């Protein structure tokens, strides 16, 4: 037994991808995480004990695997609860104590659902301008003492967004239920333990249903409503001890409550005078049951944080604005209702991300109103703690109109809402602006992981753009455990792709096909490549190879049938007018043509094609698909040569003379050995000529700093990162950004909002730069899926003198902190149990097992710092500022 080290214990047990023990799978895999820092500890075997209704079962496996161990027992049946205990046996007899957790199966068979989808008799809403009015559905039922002796579960979902109360108490902690999926194919349901809410005697269950994504207005250019149907509905049943004691059916009644309208883009209208009133008590209608599969929601959306206001602002025009100091996604809670007011007066809350000329900057919201309104009564006390229920906003600033009661800074709290994922990545350094940049990336992710990974959370869009997720997924997977949310989203992608001639939709769930059928099937690299690259990145982060099995058909279909090809196998066009979005949002592109950047879009598409083909070869090999592996390996070699023939000069210049073209060619291994140095030298020149400002968009930005660092140009990578003038990462930070922006100059140096139609202040895509912070400054890179083996290779540079990084890997917490002290680099690392790390610092290269270790090597600052720009102009003053 080693001393001075904390012993190894198991600290978490996961069933498949479920963190809370609820599963949708009769045979969930088992994965466990370790804590403790015993040196070189690894698992040699494990014991699994399962306590089921049928008795206790014991299993022993001689395996070092602690992730995704197949379910050893017979399948669970619907609603079965079992207790699983694990003990992991370590090298040298150092075993962990037993660790137990409960697994509970959901409704595994469709026949378990005996409830009916019910709706109100109110006519469908067709008006595009205003959201529809949510409705209430009620039922009274009786229970005896005997009923209450057993645990009770509520199973529910909706066409729309729903909330359920039992005896006046809201059920569960989830919001915006059931979340957004490709409803025609897959619809999530939720399980809640309602045992403590029920009582003997009369009980009341009430459902509140709003339009949500199901029938609310969605899409840009005005969008469309009723995309999945024009009737909202509720499907719910409470089960006690295998008996359904209440279920939605024709015995329920419908009415209308105090919410007069509520929509995702436009916000909510609440009438105080209607609170507690149930207008009408009408019979309900029965809807056809959901055509899509009912799937247990593994990615619940919740209230995750509360933010207090930092300032009250009175604008030049006299408006009152509350500043929460952070651009966020969610809504506000009213802590102090106005004490006086005239019945019928309106209290209007307008949300925006920025101010322009001191006033609320709402233009970027396009035609999303993002406004919650309250019609006041004479007694407004019920507004204490009021929050909207069926909408969400992206905002930092809240303009309050009609609150004449001396607005105070504590009167409102901002509620941050996103999918409840486990946080897994942290980074901090000696450089405060780089730290803020990292925070902004994290906030960009929170705001755009509300059920679906979206482009932005505020304007009339908020869609699951595949390209945005593709470029950001490596960063996302470092920061949070996205497995549950993204694996569901990928299933939607695959299903919708199959319906569109093997081309993944540009947004998932695909509303574009429903709204703009002419755009459906638009075939784009980067966006379509999400079909291969998002699962691959998720597999690398999580170690879950079954994900690749599940997505294989979609990946294969994209490469072998979806991509239009020329005779030589490179990207072709379906029609002569076809185009690509290429290096989308290259800063050189004009505000209204973000795809019109410096790099030939087909060069970008083909660079990606070679890369994706190689990825496909690797995946096929991993899944033992020998025939496909050989095919894609051959295709990769062939396409690589064709890329070189078409886009690279003999010596190594690229035909688009741009940072993105060079970075893609270097990063995706698209150059011969003799061409690489020429490409690197030209890239260096372009970086210096551009005075270290960003010159890349979606394709180049995620990789440019990594490429510089990997090609002995670390000083240039740091120099670009530390540039403060526009366009640069720290320009946004300098301008007070608290999230990642869509454009480098969403806010222009003169304080005006970029006039482009697409100007959001919360777009995660360009935050992919955080991978450089994680992999190069922090120094952590996975070498084997799930971080079974990884590299610790921090690379100090620029003016950064220390950094600390943490990643909660599937095996446990990885830590690395370093600082430069006199002429030494001191590095402290912590490697989780059952993993190995390659340490690579200075001239020290060593492989180690688990535990805490410290290293010290000689450090010589890079003599190339600070690099000098290449300056073309004799007249324009040099704008070059290191942050
Ligand atoms: C979105 C982008 C998206 C793009 C593609 C935009 O409106 O906000 O992030 O990828 O459209 O066309």
UniProtKB/TrEMBL annotation:
Entry keyword set: Hydrolase
Alpha-L-rhamnosidase concanavalin-like domain location: 315-418
Domain Bacterial alpha-L-rhamnosidase N-terminal: 150-274
Enzyme type, top EC level: hydrolase
Reaction catalyzed: Hydrolysis of terminal non-reducing alpha-L-rhamnose residues in alpha-L-rhamnosides
Protein EC: 3.2.1.40
Record-annotated Alpha-L-rhamnosidase six-hairpin glycosidase domain positions: 422-776
InterPro entries: 6-hairpin_glycosidase_sf (IPR008928), 6hp_glycosidase-like_sf (IPR012341), Alpha_rhamnosid (IPR016007), Bac_rhamnosid6H (IPR035396), Bac_rhamnosid_C (IPR035398), Bac_rhamnosid_N (IPR013737), Rhamnosid_concanavalin (IPR008902)
Domain Alpha-L-rhamnosidase C-terminal: 779-854
SUPFAM superfamilies on file: Six-hairpin glycosidases (SSF48208)
Residues spanning the membrane: none
Domain of life: Eukaryota
Biological processes, Gene Ontology terms: carbohydrate metabolic process
Keyword Hydrolase: yes
Name of protein: alpha-L-rhamnosidase
């Amino acid at each position: 037994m080693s001393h001075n080290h904390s012993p190894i214990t198991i600290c978490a047990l996961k069933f498949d991808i479920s963190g809370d023990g609820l599963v949708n799978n009769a045979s969930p895999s088992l994965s466990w995480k370790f804590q403790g820092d015993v040196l070189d500890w690894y698992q040699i075997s494990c014991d699994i004990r399962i306590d089921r209704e049928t008795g206790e079962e014991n299993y022993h496996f001689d395996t070092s695997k602690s992730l995704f161990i197949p379910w050893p027992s017979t399948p669970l049946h619907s609603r079965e609860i079992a207790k699983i205990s694990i003990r992991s046996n370590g090298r040298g007899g150092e075993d962990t104590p037993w660790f137990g957790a409960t697994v509970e199966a959901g409704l595994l068979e469709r026949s378990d659902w005996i409830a009916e989808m019910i709706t109100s008799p109110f006519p469908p809403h067709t008006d595009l301008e205003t959201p529809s009015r949510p409705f209430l559905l009620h039922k009274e039922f009786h229970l005896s003492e005997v009923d209450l002796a057993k645990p009770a579960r509520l199973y529910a979902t909706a066409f729309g967004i729903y909330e359920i109360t039992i005896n006046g108490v809201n059920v569960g902690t989830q919001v915006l239920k059931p979340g957004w999926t490709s409803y025609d194919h897959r619809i999530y349901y939720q399980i809640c333990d309602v045992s403590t809410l029920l009582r003997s005697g009369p009980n009341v269950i009430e459902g509140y249903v709003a339009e949500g994504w199901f029938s609310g207005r969605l899409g840009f250019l005005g969008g469309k409503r009723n995309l999945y149907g024009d009737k909202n509905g509720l499907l719910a049943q409470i089960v006690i001890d295998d008996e359904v004691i209440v279920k939605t059916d024709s015995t329920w009644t419908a009415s209308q409550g105090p919410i007069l309208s509520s929509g995702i883009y436009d916000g909510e209208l609440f009438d105080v005078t209607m609170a507690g009133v149930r207008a009408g008590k009408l019979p309900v209608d029965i809807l056809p049951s959901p055509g899509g599969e009912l799937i247990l929601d593994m990615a619940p959306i919740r209230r995750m944080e509360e933010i207090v206001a930092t300032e009250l602002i009175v604008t030049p025009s006299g408006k009152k604005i509350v500043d929460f100091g952070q651009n966020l996604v969610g809504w506000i809670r009213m802590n102090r209702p106005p004490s006086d007011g005239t019945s019928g007066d309106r209290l209007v809350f307008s949300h925006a991300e920025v101010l322009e000329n001191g006033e609320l900057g709402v233009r970027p919201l396009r035609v999303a109103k993002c406004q919650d309104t309250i019609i006041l009564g004479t007694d407004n006390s019920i507004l204490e703690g009021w929050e909207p229920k069926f909408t969400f906003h992206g905002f930092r600033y809240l303009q309050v109109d009609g609150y004449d009661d001396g607005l105070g800074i504590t009167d409102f709290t901002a509620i941050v809402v996103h999918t409840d994922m486990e946080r897994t990545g942290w980074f901090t350094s000696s450089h405060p602006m780089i730290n803020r940049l990292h925070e902004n990336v994290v906030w960009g992710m929170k705001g755009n992981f509300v059920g679906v990974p979206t482009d932005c959370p505020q304007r009339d869009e908020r869609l699951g753009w595949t390209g945005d997720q593709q470029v950001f997924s490596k960063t996302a997977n470092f920061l949070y455990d996205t497995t549950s949310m993204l694996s569901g989203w990928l299933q939607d992608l695959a299903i919708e792709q199959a319906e569109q001639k093997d081309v993944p939709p540009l947004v998932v769930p695909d509303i574009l096909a429903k709204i703009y059928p002419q755009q459906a099937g638009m075939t784009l690299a980067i966006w379509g490549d999400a079909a291969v690259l998002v699962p691959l990145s998720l597999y690398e982060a999580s170690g879950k190879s079954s994900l690749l099995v599940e997505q294989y058909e979609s990946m294969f279909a994209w490469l072998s049938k979806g991509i239009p090809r020329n005779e030589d196998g490179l990207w072709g066009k379906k029609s002569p007018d076809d185009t690509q979005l290429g290096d989308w949002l290259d800063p050189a592109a004009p505000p209204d043509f973000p795809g019109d950047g410096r790099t030939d879009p087909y060069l970008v598409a083909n660079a990606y094609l070679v890369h994706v083909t190689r990825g496909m070869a690797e995946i096929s090999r991993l899944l033992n698909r020998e025939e496909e592996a050989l095919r894609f390996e051959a295709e990769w070699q062939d396409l690589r040569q064709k890329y070189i023939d078409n886009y690279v000069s003999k010596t190594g210049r690229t035909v688009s003379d741009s940072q993105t073209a060079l970075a893609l060619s270097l990063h995706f291994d698209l150059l011969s050995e003799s061409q690489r140095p020429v490409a690197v030298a030209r890239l260096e020149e372009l970086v210096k000529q551009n005075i270290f400002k960003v010159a890349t968009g979606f394709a180049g930005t995620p990789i440019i700093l990594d490429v510089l660092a990997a090609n002995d140009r670390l000083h240039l990578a740091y120099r670009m990162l530390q540039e403060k003038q526009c366009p640069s990462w720290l320009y946004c930070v300098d301008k007070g950004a608290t999230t990642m922006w869509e454009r480098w100059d969403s806010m222009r140096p003169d304080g005006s909002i970029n006039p482009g139609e697409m100007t959001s202040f919360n777009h995660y895509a360009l935050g992919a730069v955080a991978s450089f912070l994680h992999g190069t400054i922090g120094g952590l890179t996975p070498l084997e899926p799930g971080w079974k083996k990884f590299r610790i290779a921090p690379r100090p540079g620029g003016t950064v003198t220390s950094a600390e990084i943490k990643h909660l890997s599937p095996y446990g917490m990885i830590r690395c902190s370093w600082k430069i002290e006199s002429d030494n680099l001191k590095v402290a690392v912590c490697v989780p149990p059952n993993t190995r790390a390659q340490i690579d610092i200075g001239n020290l290269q060593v492989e180690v097992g688990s535990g805490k270790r410290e290293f010290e090597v000689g450090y010589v600052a890079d003599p190339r710092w600070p690099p000098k720009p290449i300056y073309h102009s004799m007249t324009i003053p040099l704008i070059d500022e290191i942050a």
